[in-house]
Amino acid sequence: MAATVVVGFTELFILSCFLALASSTSTLYVTHIPDCISFNEGAGAISSDEISDVVSVALGFTPSKELRWSGLSQGDLFKRPSANVLVAVQSVSGSEVQPSFASQRKYVVTNTGAVQMENARISISKAYGEDAGVYFDLTSDSKEIKLPLKYQSVFKDLPVTLKGISTSLHGDLSILLDFQQGSLNLSGVADTVLFSELQLMKNMLLELSENQGLIEDGVPDLYSFTISGLRAVQTEYGVESEQAKDASRIVGQFLDQFSSAFAALYENNALVEILLTDVESYSRRLSRSILQAATPSPAPPGAPDLNVAGTYDENWPVFFNIFLWLGVTLTITVLAVAHLLWYMDPGDTIIYRMTSQRMKMD
User: Fold this and answer.
1) Average pLDDT value for residue range 146-169
2) Do the Cβ atoms of 156 and 210 come closer than 8 Å?
3) Less CB within 10 Å around the terminal CB: N or C of the chain?
4) How deeply is 323 buried, as exposed, middle or buried, from its count of CB atoms within 10 A (0-12, 13-18, 19+)?
5) Share of the chain above pLDDT 70, in %
6) Does the reported pTM lie above 0.70?
7) d(CA 49, CA 69)
């Protein structure tokens, strides 16, 4: 079974934001669509709780429930996207300054709520096994990263603390070198939140590009990210401030580059969506490590022994099927040969024709 890493996304930032569901609106932008699928332009609004099932269908799996939204066409049955990338961008409700980026389709999202990719993840696990594919969930309150066991060391050098990210922000691969900062700088807490989130996404993309085995394993991958720094800047300086305008510009430019880079990483066979959410307010909280390894909690006293089975090698089903069907084939062959020999007519065989039936007499 793939090792699971549970992460708390906010030590990296000092400040993080909770999604307030009341009085919020969302828009779903599809920024990259592989040739094997297509989206209908006039499909109308989509409910947030159907996005995960739409992704499942796009990847070639059965949805958990019947879809009411008809914006996704069937597409090529023999070729499906290799990955899905969802980036949720949070901003203050009522702001007229929003990130701008290139998109192929745009849909209003109703029943606004946190979008989880759990349905798509379950479909992939059932089809390929638990120890298969890449699963990033950096959007919900309980963050999770799942990788195959042999790739657990991929992110070992990824900066996981505020100090580590600060080092990256001042390094050769800093996100600050990619864009004009304008009125933003690292002396502000909200500014640091924004740049840290973008730096983290860039670092993850670089790590993935250096590990092609994760991408070329034939298993669909799921990635989910959240950018809450834009909302932090808008709340800190005001929605019409120069800092908010610069933050919106940087986020828009970054998402253009991020979408194109992910698509290129999967040879233009990745489905990329951006969910832009307007939220009225946010809460602040302290933070913890982003890639903090999960520590198994001890079972409570008196908890029943579930007798969980041990971990099997990933090639066990292959060996099992080889030996099973080889054994079945050999058994049927031996029975068929024995049956034919038992009921064979002695006069029709070359053995008896070439052998004299008379005893030799001296």
Assistant:
1) 69
2) no
3) C
4) exposed
5) 70
6) no
7) 11
